[in-house]
Amino acid sequence: MTGKARQRAGNKWRCAAVLAGLAAATAFADARYSTPVGKNHPLNLYWGDTHVHTRNSSDAYTLGNTNFGPADAYRFARGEELTAHNGMRARLRRPLDFLVVADHGEYLGGFYRFNAGDPVVVDTEVARKRWAQIFVDGDMERTINAILGTRTDPGNYPPFPYGTRKLIWQDVAETADDFNNPGRFTTLIGYEWTSMIDGNNLHRVVVYRDGADKAGRLPPFSAQDSLDPRDLWRALARYEAETGGQVIAIPHNGNLSNGMMFPARSVDGRPIDRAYAELRSRWEPIVEVSQFKGDGEAHPVLSPNDEFADFETWDWDNILQSAAKEDWMLPHEYARSALKLGLEYAADLGVNPFKFGMIGSTDSHTSLATAAEDNYFGKYPEAEPDAKRLETAMGANRMWENWKLSASGYTAIWARENTREELFAALKRREVYATTGTRIAVRFFGGWDYEPGDIHKPAYLDIAYGKGVPMGGDLAAAPDGRAPVFIAAAARDPDAANLDRIQIVKGWLDAAGNSHEKVYDVALSDGRETDPETGKAAPVGSTVDVARASYVNTIGAPVLAAVWTDPDFDPGERAFYYARVIEIPTPRWTAYDANFFNVDLPGHIPATVQDRAYTSPIWYSP
């Protein structure tokens, strides 16, 4: 080697050494000082609605939503003002972060396009032979029967031709793309599969991760294609195989299914088997447990020791009011009992078909995603604010008295950023929770090594994620002599009520195969403690002035948090845990109506409510 060559080699070595030293110094500095390096926790909380209908839904259109299409729903959700069907101006106090327009897949966009003279629909056989006379006569009963027939008797209600369906669906998907603004406002493409068997609700909202380039390739699989959820799941599998996209289904209103939503038998009468369990667990990671047609977390008959189980309960019949409710149906309708059934199936089949997270949505048919009690614009045009809506019923056949409708609800998602990919990933991993319309911020973690002081540390999320799993996660292989420890933290909606309490709901399966449940108060406001004999805490009280539809936050707490260890843990028993956060009492929307319109509130109509949040569970498997 020449002198110059040796010099060049030496320079190269010295340069490499300096770079290596800088890299080592940088790594050392990062490790010692910049604590976020190497961490990628979901730190952002996003609020939205996964279930809104527009004039593209045949029932919404027939019941009066002839004005607002998907574009209007997106505009309203992102904070713009609209004039509702009743002439009132409507706006959200705080915009949403994301929205799913989930119009019914059966004759999607058909009624609106037919009456607008769109040849894409007008020239179809079903429009010429069936719809023309219905709309000319204005026969509402026949119209409703046509709508319901697509969901209960699809053989007699043929779908649009494939080309028509695809063209309309592409328009729906492209409109969602037009309003998708990553980082600011996310539109997730979706629709509703609206199966009903004997009037029993089996509805699912289908949500895509993808844009119109993929989601628009295949039109929705509707109840006109099949009433069997297994066929829906297979259609979703075909979509993913053909497009490379991703999609999930979200069941809702199990309370109106008369025992069919979380069944012991599939729709063909055969007992649930491993194949069913695998399909369902793959395609349905979350369930909508709160919306305007009742709350579906728990039922007082199933949870008699839970004083908060009877919340906005609808338990009279099925969705078509064609059969009365019977007690045997209830365990197959409510989320908590379904989670318990899931433990039993996991033990018997090796797969849990009901391993789901929980979300809330409005199911609004007005295009307006309102869920706050003091901004309740109804869920159908007939149920929009009016001096007489407390006295009247909703719909052409007056199916439901308006006062029974709930303001619920919203979906909360913990994610890294507000994009389709990140929000969808959070839905799939179940790091989501439901609220009944309020915007309580809730964190819930489970692990084996949390300590009581962890919740007070400034960077407690590093500890929470580092030593355990968030809501939607799994714990396994309990260390000898250890019980699971949970971190639960909640902060009030800054625009709403203080918090009454945080509870942890536990369900478990004993050695004999029997399921159980228990509710623990783990954080209480105002210095209250649970009674050691009953395990219950005294009510928080109330500051509600019903006549003025007002309250004050002089009771309750703005923030509650706890580190709680399960005192009844058995390492050999399967279990789930979720947090329930409850606000102090506030006026219900019915009280706001009575005050605004200066009308009397009949005694049988509830005037107050304790809004709440339900986290997705954490599961323990031996």
Write a brief caption for the model.
With 622 residues, the chain is α+β, with helices and mostly antiparallel strands. The protein has 15 helices and 29 strands. The protein is globular and about 70 Å long.
Fold and architecture overview:
The chain is α+β, with helices and mostly antiparallel strands and 622 residues long. It is 27% helix and 21% strand. The chain is built from 15 helices and 29 strands. The strands form 8 sheets. Strands 1, 4, 5, 16, 17, 20, 22, 23, 25, 28 and 29 form an 11-stranded mixed β-sheet that branches. A 4-stranded antiparallel β-sheet has the order 19-18-21-24. The model is unreliable at 1-30 (pLDDT under 50).
N-end to C-end Cα span = 67 Å
Shape verdict: globular
Please bin the fraction of helical residues.
Answer: 25-40%
**What is the SS-derived class?**
alpha+beta
Total strands: the figure is 29
Q: β content, as a range? A: 15-25%
Low-confidence stretches: 1-30
- Tally of contiguous helical segments: 15
Mean pLDDT across all amino acids:
92
Gyration radius (Cα, Å) is 26 Å
Largest beta sheet, briefly? 11 strands, mixed
